[in-house]
């Protein structure tokens, strides 16, 4: 259902008769118009801009056909009065609202609303100031909606909360039982009525501003301010969480490094040559520095292996040089 059809439904009433006095005054107005023609055209012609609509009252009653415009139209002097309505989207800043969240945390939230008048006639005859009333209703709805959310939801789900407050055409408009079940927190009744509780506040503003001819196009939360003590507590909690995560990562890294060292030690223990190569690599790394004196501490097993290897080499050379006895 579009905005125009909704506006027509809101003002479907039979046009009241003007009565005898009305017809007499209309005739007098036409007579004056003819007598003072063409000077009377100055007061009788009205130009309405493209973004405006004119609501014409004849003897206090709205003319049939709704708002006029844009363009040029005719007014009867002394009988017709005209009020122009701006149909463009207007915006209002909602002042900071002190809200108590579901988990008993006081926050200050300010927002901005974007609205548009879709029916000029309803905005004139149904309410004194449609724009001011829309702003007050949006502030009240913002408090009611955020009062059902926890602090974490308010901080992390701003877009979803804003989308819930936006006005969209819906087949559920007019289901007052649904809104009563929502405000009382009865989600089971909402399920029973076939309505998703995730869109519980989607049409609250539309339900309130529809009789005024106002359409809420967008609601945006600009800022959420927490008390100073709560900010410090959240900062301490975030710092503790980061420290704990860093310790866990460090412990996991040490565990993986220990496993790798254990596997390397197991492999090298099975091959003495690998140990010697590793030993030589260490000596090479030490000698790469600018050191004038290098002290080597050889283990007993290493010295024994070196002596054994030296003895075998000497014996081998002697065996090769000495001639065999006949």
From TrEMBL:
Regions crossing the membrane: 21-42
Q: Name one GO cellular component term.
A: cytoplasmic side of plasma membrane
- Keyword Electron transport annotated: no
Q: Where is the Band domain?
A: 43-238
Enumerate the UniProt keywords alphabetically.
Membrane, Transmembrane, Transmembrane helix
Query: Which Pfam families does the record match to this protein?
Result: Band_7 (PF01145)
* Top-level division of the source organism's lineage: Eukaryota
Q: What is stated as this protein's family in its record?
A: Belongs to the band 7/mec-2 family.
Q: What is this protein called?
A: Band 7 domain-containing protein
Q: Which organism is it from?
A: Dreissena polymorpha (Zebra mussel)
Q: What is the lineage of its organism?
A: Eukaryota, Metazoa, Spiralia, Lophotrochozoa, Mollusca
């Amino acid at each position: 259902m579009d905005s125009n059809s909704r506006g027509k439904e809101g003002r479907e009433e039979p046009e009241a008769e003007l009565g005898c006095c009305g017809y007499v005054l209309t005739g007098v107005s036409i007579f004056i118009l003819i007598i003072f023609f063409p000077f009377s055209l100055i007061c009788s012609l009205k130009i309405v801009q493209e973004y405006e609509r004119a609501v014409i009252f004849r003897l206090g009653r709205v003319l049939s056909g709704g708002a006029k415009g844009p363009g040029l139209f005719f007014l009867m002097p002394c009988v017709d009065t005209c009020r122009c309505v701006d149909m463009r989207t207007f915006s209002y800043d909602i002042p900071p609202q002190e809200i108590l969240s579901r988990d008993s945390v006081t926050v200050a939230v300010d927002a901005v609303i974007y609205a548009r008048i879709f029916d000029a006639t309803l905005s004139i005859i149904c309410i004194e100031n449609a724009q001011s009333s829309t702003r007050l209703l949006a502030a009240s709805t913002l408090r009611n909606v955020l009062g059902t959310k926890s602090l974490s939801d308010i901080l992390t789900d701003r877009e979803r909360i804003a989308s819930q407050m936006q006005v969209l055409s819906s087949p559920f408009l007019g289901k007052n039982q649904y809104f009563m079940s929502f405000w009382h927190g009865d989600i089971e009744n909402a399920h029973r009525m076939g309505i998703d509780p995730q869109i519980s506040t989607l049409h609250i503003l539309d339900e309130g501003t529809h009789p005024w001819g106002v359409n809420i196009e967008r609601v945006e939360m600009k800022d959420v301010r927490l008390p100073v003590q709560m900010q410090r507590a959240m900062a301490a909690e975030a710092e503790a969480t980061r420290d704990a995560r860093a310790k866990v990562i460090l412990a996991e890294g040490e565990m993986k490094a220990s496993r790798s060292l254990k596997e390397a030690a197991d492999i090298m223990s099975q091959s003495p040559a690998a140990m010697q190569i590793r030993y030589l690599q260490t000596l090479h790394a030490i000698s790469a520095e600018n050191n004038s004196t290098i002290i080597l501490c050889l283990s007993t097993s290493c010295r024994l292996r070196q002596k054994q290897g030296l003895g075998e080499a000497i014996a081998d050379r002697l065996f090769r040089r000495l001639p065999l006895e006949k």
